[in-house]
Amino acid sequence: MHKLHIALILIILTLFLSSCSQEELSERFIPKEESSFAKDYLSKLRGRDFTYVKGFLSPELDAQVTDELLEQMAAYFRDGEPLSVKIIGSQVNVFSGQWQGNFTFEYQFESGWNLANTVLKKTDSGYQVIGIHVYQTEASQKELNAFGLSSKSGLQYLVLCLAVLVPLFILFTLIVCIRTPIQRKKWLWIIFVLFGFGAIQVNWTNGAYAFQLISVHLFGASATAAGPGAPWIVSASVPLGALVFWLRRKSLIERANKSSQQDASDAGASA
Question: What is d(CA 67, CA 57) in angstroms, rounded to the nearest whole number?
């Protein structure tokens, strides 16, 4: 019993520490060489070095991109030198041996902010650019995607409440489960109670939502962001294990009591 309580504490501490170090972990897994190329490539676009820019375009993109289009994209960057340039998004996919990376940078200028994105793929000769995007924004992504409670939809508030209440319900059920006499394999019940199944997810910035029928969440909820400037995705699951436990708890106790009485009876008979 004492070991089970220790395990419970360790699980909670692990969840807390992992959430605290998310930004550090995301930076650690950003490919340095590829992201540096993407950053330099966007700098060449901002500096209107179109010969360099077009030299790395994939054949498909090169057929569509003209100097006029590149000039329009370069003009989307705000005037002056950037005060800071930060990578806020990094996605890498490898499918059938083909590497592809998607890197997003945030630029801060005196007059405002820019987002710029480069999509790369690797070839035998180096890199090919298969996508470029430049946007102007009113504020930093960290500010735009900051977690706040004002001006949210009813669905967002509902999912947030569930994301708070479901873990509390699972935690309470877990404690009761640990204290409940169960005849066999209590650890299976503990694992079952710990997880939520299925999920409803909501983007906390824009309110977009999605349902996931096939998913499993420890403690039945999560709140994650892909990076320091990315929107929070709040998710809540059905605490199926906890619900089934409460439906079966009475029968589990009765079965354990009968087993104890039978063991006591057998012990008395043998004596």
Answer: 13
CA 194 to each of CA 174, 245, 246: distance values in angstroms, whole numbers, following the listed order: 7, 11, 13
- Residue partners of 107: CB distance under 8 A and separation at least 6: 77, 78, 82, 84, 85, 113, 114, 115, 116
Q: Say if residues 239 and 166 touch (Cβ distance below 8 Å).
A: yes
pTM of the model: 0.67
Helix axes 154-179, 240-270, angle to 10 degrees: 10
| 271 residues of the chain, pLDDT tens digit each | 444 444 444 444 444 444 444 454 456 678 899 999 999 999 999 999 999 999 999 999 999 999 999 999 999 999 999 999 999 888 898 888 889 999 999 999 999 999 999 999 998 888 999 999 999 998 998 888 888 888 899 999 999 999 999 999 999 999 999 999 887 888 999 999 999 999 999 999 889 999 998 889 999 999 888 766 788 999 999 999 999 999 999 988 888 777 666 655 555 555 5
- The two tokens of residue 94 are 């490898």
Q: Could you give all domains of the chain from N- to C-terminal order, each with its CATH number? A: 31-144 (3.10.450.590), 147-262 (no CATH)
